[in-house]
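Quick one: examine this chain and its backbone structure tokens and tell me how the chain folds. Here goes:
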Amino acid sequence: MEPLDLLIAAVMIALAAYLYLDKKNKYWADRGIPFVKPELLYGNVKEMNRTVQMGQLFQKFYNELKGQGSFGGVYMFTKPVAVVTDLELLKCIFVKDFQYFHDRGNFYTEKADPLTAHMFNLEGNKWKMLRNKLSPTFTSGKMKMMFPTIVAAGKQFHDFMIEKVQHESEFELKDLLARFTTDVIGMCAFGIECNSIKDPDAQFRAMGRKLFSNQIPKPTVFLTNSMPSVARKLGIKIIPTDISDFFMNAVRQTIDYRLKNNIRRNDFMDLLIQMRNPDETKSGEGLLSFNEIAAQAFVFYLAGFETSSTLLTWTLYELSVNQHIQDKGREHVKDVLGKHNGQMTYESITSMKYLDQILNEALRKYPPVPIHLRVASKDYKVPDSKYVIEAGTRLFVPVYGIHHDPQIFPDPEKFDPERFSPEEEQKRHPYAWTPFGEGPRICIGLRFGMMQARIGLAYLLNSFKFSIGEKCQVPLEIDAKVGFLSPKGGLWLKVEKI
């Protein structure tokens, strides 16, 4: 082929690619739906997880699109996604019209990356079956059974802190809190003494640290978001092989040990073992393959330790900045414990209502999962509008943006637990605060997560005073490179024994 012919062919290919991408970027404009102007290849997410955290980026979209309708459009690379800006539409998506929005549309691949096929990602009947089977694990009755295990981990954490403050007056707490929640999850999900509190390099903690520091390459993010079917055919993996192997082996050893010794612990792993198919390579009729069991144990670990430790991290930061709230929280803990002979019982912990207000306000200001995802399973006529959300369209609920909307939460940057007094909660739209989601896909581990956060906070406030350390930046910066809402550089506080 002549050089001129090669040049013409290259120009024609480039022009065709440009016209294709330009057409993709006109999806919202062609339908008359308000949208944020995209760039050619990146859409609206060029900054995401590089210079701007995903929750903060979608807050910007929310603020730009709000008031122009109940939703607007942006682009994840070349893929059009809807951003929900109206709480009544949010109610329809989460509950009223759930049959249209039962899936999250997250990328997973059971064959190449089996740990990604967990309940958070699963779709359709498989998700429904698992949800129904696993829900009994998280009832208040099961929480009472697991309560002594969580308290024991809390006591161990408390004793470690007492020893630590004798030698150091200022130290980093984010990793310490993650070690506490790792120990709790290790016991409740795997029946394993992780010993992360005393050993920061314990295997479970090391794997958790590595998992959240793992940066997924940009081409992989592009492919899994824009062309998930292609990514599956190519066998694209999101979880590094060494992490996957570690958790697979941990689950295998736990199952084998319990079956061999006929051990029952009334925990999460017990329920999974009861659903185990004798032929572990297959699933169906309410039974799970080994890979499916491993995936559920993995997501319980993943969500259980990171979200709770992040919640406690932001809570201690705000209590250090707002000493009067910290003092009130401490008085509340001591008052409740005084009525229960000084004991951390299930009844005393569940009576600490002001701690719930503190934690709920931290979840408002710093929701660990700053965006909820859904995908339309079929065409959906948006109520009170002329618009249709077409089947296959992904919807992003900008939780962080809604939680920082001054029309919903006045003076949103102020940390104020009184927002969650019964009287104030009744004044608000019921879908204004959704850190755990809502409806049939609400976080299944909500009770468990709040229980371990409440126990950890009660132990800490009862015995220690926290204040801003010399190494702590105020305001604390959100780490742009992490999917969860996490503080950059950890949390350095002064800690004094009371």
Summary: The beta strands are 71-76, 79-84, 170-172, 372-375, 380-381, 388-389, 394-397, 464-468, 492-497. The longest strand covers residues 71-76.
